[in-house]
Amino acid sequence: TDLQPGVSICRSVPPSVAPRNAWKSAGGENMNPSAPSYPMASLYVGDLHQDVTEAMLYEKFSPAGAILSIRVCRDMITRRSLGYAYVNFQQPADAERALDTMNFDVIKGRPVRIMWSQRDPSLRKSGVGNIFIKNLDKSIDNKALYDTFSAFGNILSCKVVCDENGSKGYGFVHFETQEAAERAIEKMNGMLLNDRKVFVGRFKSRKEREAELGARAKEFTNVYIKNFGEDMDDDKLKDVFSKYGTAMSIRVMTDENGKSRGFGFVSFERHEDAQRAVDEMNGKELNGKLIYVGRAQKKVERQTELKRKFEQMKQDRMTRYQGVNLYVKNLDDGLDDEHLRKEFSPFGTITSAKVMMDGGRSKGFGFVCFSSPEEATKAVTEMNGRIVATKPLYVALAQRKEERQAHLTNQYMQRMASVRAVPNPVINPYQPAPPSGYFMAAIPQVGWVSLGLSKKILNVEFKIKIHIRMQKRCIRILSVRQAALSVAHEMRRRCKCRCILMLLLAYPFEPTRCGADTLFIQNIADKENN
């Protein structure tokens, strides 16, 4: 079905989506509630160079059709690009055309990845129709992977995972339907791509993978042995471990000279035999050395377990030092660890005191850790602001990087909210003059400039004050020159008289500009007198 004459739905667009959205836009109901919902006129553009701007994307995508909006997503604090953007077209057919003709085009040296915008994270992360491909050749990029798997069905997204060195050898393809994903797995798993045999399987979430690893750990049969000498070989290792059960294979890893590298593997027939070998041999002495015996793990498993242990140790350390570790900055360059400990020792038992150094020179800050939160609190109260050597110290409870970033983000959001909450005053420079004897009330606010006009007509004094909102040394509503002109016009309308103009200044305002504007106002007054 064509969305407009001469433009057909391309293969990358879910065919079930177009008629459903067209029906809904005409006031109908969703005839296919089980199908995923994709905003037909909105595109996700990923893998962007950090220097790509909205203007560049507009220039790139505008030939495809009328564009409603373009937004490059940026970090809230630094305003640096996050590497992706959203392009919203007026017509779904224009978005189709852009997706069909511009996907993987190069912008600022990078091929961009375009797909239909799917804002619902539950649908993106459901895993339905998503497959995982590994052992990819380095030369296979997003476009090559897309071209290879597009024969099996409509592709919603396709990505080869890369780092600074290029492809990491694996990627993902997300199909519109689970049937298309299963066809791709059936046909492509074990096939050669650029002379490399690839694995293609169903995408599994982190939780599923961890559950599988846990189950595999409970039923292992392969044992890893390390820290034995160079004289160990396969036969000697078999003699040591054969008493625990039938061994399917035994291997001592050797170098290019045939010497033992100090580790090897024994694969048992039964899990119970492998478990007994680990329980009895781990930590035992073999040829004068204490050996390690444990479940053999893949590299990914070892890295995952090491990461988990590291995070656990990090969390335990943070919990142990919560409320007792102090951050001290603005230290004198001559202050060392011992001097820092001496300054803080009157407030309690110090477990550690460290001045951070860079090439033997102080970086100007350090840490002091007490044995109890009460001692740390007392030290903060007494030492914060105290001058040590030549500088006043800043002392506070140490925070993790994540806590500091969250605190700074919260401060920034509060500051932005307060700025937005202050209404800008609306001043009419041509408002009629107040009646005789009337004084216009001044708004008491720091950072405002008051321009006062004093004049005498038949011993009757009039004063007009015009208030100008100031922010960061910039006049936002009305410049001083505009104010002077407004007053001059009003004076000419009421009567000719001798003018006395007085500029009352409040910070922040540039003195150099004040002098120029005062002279300008005096010139106007002279003209009016004449």
UniProtKB/TrEMBL annotation:
Repeat recorded as keyword: yes
RRM domain residues: 41-119, 129-205, 221-298, 324-400
Superkingdom of the organism of origin: Eukaryota
Keywords assigned by UniProt, alphabetized: Repeat, RNA-binding
Keyword hit for Protein biosynthesis: no
One Pfam family it belongs to: RRM_1
Molecular function terms, GO-annotated: RNA binding
Membrane-spanning residues: none
NCBIfam families listed in its UniProt record: PABP-1234
Name this polypeptide is given: Polyadenylate-binding protein 1-like
Lineage: Eukaryota, Metazoa, Chordata, Craniata, Vertebrata
